[in-house]
Amino acid sequence: MSTIQLGAANFEDTIKENEVVLVDFWASWCGPCRQFAPIYEAASQVNTDFVFGSVNTEEERELSAAARITSIPTLMAFKSGQLVFAQPGALPAPALDQLIQAVRELELPDEDEAVDQSTADQDGNR
């Protein structure tokens, strides 16, 4: 699967409806963004179990602000609708591969377990 364009209209649904989504925030004038783009695109071709999205920060200023993007490129990873990674800077291919593997192997607690733990934490603080 190749990279899909994300914007305000489809960002939230894409995150919610897919198990794992990587998002690259970029701009056309950004040199590191242009260097990272082919690495990101190549990874999207190999890792078809992930959704790879791109947000053009120039066209999607409100979305970029809501995501608190202060430097580009910024890469974010979402798993089961939760943000599990966010880091500015272009990654070399081996580092991106390591990130993809780490996100793939990451086990998140069930929502019921997370709620139970949250309730236990609150009860313990009373």
From TrEMBL:
Sequence ranges assigned to domain Thioredoxin in this UniProt record: 1-105
Q: Does the keyword field hold Nucleotide-binding?
A: no
NCBIfam families per the UniProt record, alphabetical: thioredoxin
Q: Which family does it belong to?
A: Belongs to the thioredoxin family.
According to its record, what are the GO cellular component terms? Answer: cytosol
The species this protein belongs to is Nocardioides guangzhouensis
Which Gene3D superfamilies does this one have? Glutaredoxin
**One MF term from GO for this chain?**
protein-disulfide reductase activity
Q: Per its UniProt record, what Pfam families does this chain match?
A: Thioredoxin (PF00085)
> Which gene is transcribed and translated to give this protein?
trxA
**Lineage of the species this protein comes from:** Bacteria, Bacillati, Actinomycetota, Actinomycetes, Propionibacteriales
Give the record's keywords alphabetically. Answer: Disulfide bond, Electron transport, Redox-active center, Transport
Question: What protein name applies here?
Answer: Thioredoxin
Q: Does the keyword Transport apply?
A: yes
InterPro entries per the record? Thioredoxin, Thioredoxin-like_sf, Thioredoxin_CS, Thioredoxin_domain
The record ties this protein, via PROSITE patterns, to:
THIOREDOXIN_1, THIOREDOXIN_2
